[in-house]
Design brief:
Number of helices: 14
Shape: elongated
Helix content: 25-40%
Largest sheet: 8 strands, mixed
Number of domains: 2
Structural class: alpha+beta
CATH topology of the largest domain: BirA Bifunctional Protein, domain 2
Strand content: 25-35%
Oligomer: single chain
CATH class of the largest domain: Alpha Beta
CATH superfamily of the largest domain: Bira Bifunctional Protein, Domain 2
Distance between the termini: 32 Å
């Protein structure tokens, strides 16, 4: 704590002590003043009427026997006028009030000579004494790391941050509204799982003492949602927290929020239809329009999105016909064109890596990229008459990958083979491989209808609709290294 802050804190602690000596509870459980509490916005619209409102003290201006105080809440700000002639001995209590404290004020709404809407205070109550001063109002809170660690201050001082998180809340609401109207059931599946699956990711591992078994935090909810289709549900979705023990960067946080939805008797074409409609619905709900800014580009999500095969994009953009290439020639292409590889990748892996590194950033207009290599899609159904290709798609807008879905594999024998193959493919961390989930395969053996499904990151969706391309800006409390170096260092209990 800085010396200046420490001094100010001591001053406030002394004021706190004086309040208690006066018999004033600086942290009451409720507002004792009579009347319905109005927001500052509501109060400002009630000229010549008596109102009761409450909020945080944002500024104090003393003029002898008159004190002006600005009071804020989430709806806005209103000025309160405290006059010694009307408040008498209680007026002196204002000397113990500081910026940052919470007050309730009651009085008539007037307009000052300067034309400002003001509450002429007849009664007031201290609701909370702040013993730490807020950052300077002029400079605000600018240090990025401080903003993430002290999000409560970030929200107070940076209105655009609050607006961004309000947009996130609206997005989640509207996603639910859209899917509910299409007949999807919202469900809940386990966060603690005995076996992880549904994605290629390294899990967080923990131990359940009650049963003396190792457990994993969910990396995806796909396999549980598809079990529900076996159980008779026609359409299901879940908005949930997933956890992946991987890197932290501009677009990845170890804890993140996903929406996954699945429908029986659908294929990937139908899922693209539903998802394209979702983006159009969200754009209209948030902006009232389908044109929005993505990075430096203005894009219209309201038109029909083209559906293009990955191999056609490679041929068109890179003059690379992968049907005529071998694993060896694609490996050579990667090495000569700056596509980083580990060595030993399959042909399908190489095709995907070339696409991902060389094409995606140029997909500006809303585009569905379809028909992915089987080697990188262990849960997707084979494309009829196209060996090594599956019915998988990704949505790209403004050079950003927005969502990922497919026609779900429903053949239990094929699924077992895919799981086993995925454990053998080349990757930097073997824990990222899909595990052989016997319980899921058993559920498939009872019969699973054709299914189409998709997963969309809510964080990435928020980044997209706020044009904010850092995940820490759209997660209220992003994962960060503790300031206390002793925290988080004990190993062996959670890894």
């Amino acid at each position: 704590m800085g010396k200046a802050i420490a001094v100010l804190r001591e001053v406030r602690l002394e004021k706190l002590k004086k309040l208690k000596e006066l018999g004033i509870n600086p942290y009451p459980s409720k507002i004792e003043l009579s009347g319905e509490i109005a927001t500052t916005k509501e109060a400002s619209e009630k000229l010549d009427l008596e109102v009761l409102t409450a909020g945080r003290v944002w500024s104090i201006r003393e003029h002898g026997a008159v004190v002006f105080v600005d009071i804020t809440d989430e709806t806005g700000k209103i000025q309160a006028l405290f006059q010694k002639k009307s408040l008498e001995e209680k007026f002196d209590t204002l000397q113990l009030v500081d910026i940052g404290d919470f007050l309730a004020v009651k009085g008539k709404v007037i307009k000052t000579q300067a034309g400002q809407i003001t509450i002429d205070v007849s009664e007031f109550q201290i609701l909370s004494k702040a013993i730490r001063p807020l950052p300077d109002d002029w400079s605000g809170l600018k240090d990025t790391e401080d903003r993430y660690r002290k999000r409560y201050l970030d929200l107070l001082f940076n209105p655009e941050v609050r607006k961004r998180f309000d947009t996130r809340t609206i997005l989640i609401k509207e996603v639910r509204r859209y899917l509910d109207n299409l007949g999807y059931w919202e469900v809940e599946t386990p966060t603690l799982q005995s076996l992880y699956g549904g994605a290629n990711a390294k899990p967080f591992k923990t131990h359940l003492n009650a049963l003396d078994i190792d457990m994993y935090l969910r990396i995806a909810d796909e396999l549980y949602l598809k079990r529900l289709i076996t159980g008779g549900y026609g359409k299901v979705y879940e908005i949930c927290k997933d956890f992946r023990n991987e890197g932290v960067d501009l677009t990845h946080n170890p804890e993140f929020t996903m929406i996954e939805y699945y429908s029986a008797y659908s294929d990937y074409q139908k899922v693209m239809d539903v998802t394209e409609g979702l983006f159009k619905h969200l754009a209209k709900a948030i902006f009232g329009d389908t044109t929005l800014q993505v990075g430096e580009h203005s894009v219209d999500v309201g038109k029909n999105w083209p559906r293009i095969k990955m191999t056609d994009l490679l041929k068109e953009r890179l003059k690379l016909d992968v049907s005529k290439e071998s694993q060896e020639s694609l490996t050579k292409y990667c090495m000569e064109n700056g596509v980083e590889i580990l060595g030993g990748e399959t042909k399908g892996q190489l095709i995907f890596m070339i696409f991902d590194h060389k094409i995606t950033r140029d997909l500006i207009e809303p585009t569905w990229v379809m028909d992915y290599p089987k080697d990188v899609s262990p849960l997707s159904k084979d494309k009829p008459n196209e060996k090594g290709v599956v019915e998988r798609f990704e949505g790209y807008i403004g050079g950003k990958e927005i969502c990922d879905g497919w026609s779900e594999l429903t053949d239990p024998q094929e699924q077992r083979q895919r799981f086993e193959t995925d454990k053998k493919v080349v990757r930097s961390d073997k824990e990222e491989a899909q595990q052989v989930d016997e319980d899921f395969i058993e559920a498939m053996e009872y019969g699973m209808p054709p299914i189409g499904g998709i997963g969309i990151g809510i964080d990435r969706l928020t980044m997209f609709f706020t044009n904010t391309w850092s995940i820490k800006e759209v997660v209220l409390y992003p994962t960060m290294r503790p300031l206390n170096e002793n925290l988080g260092k004990k190993r062996g209990e959670n890894t």
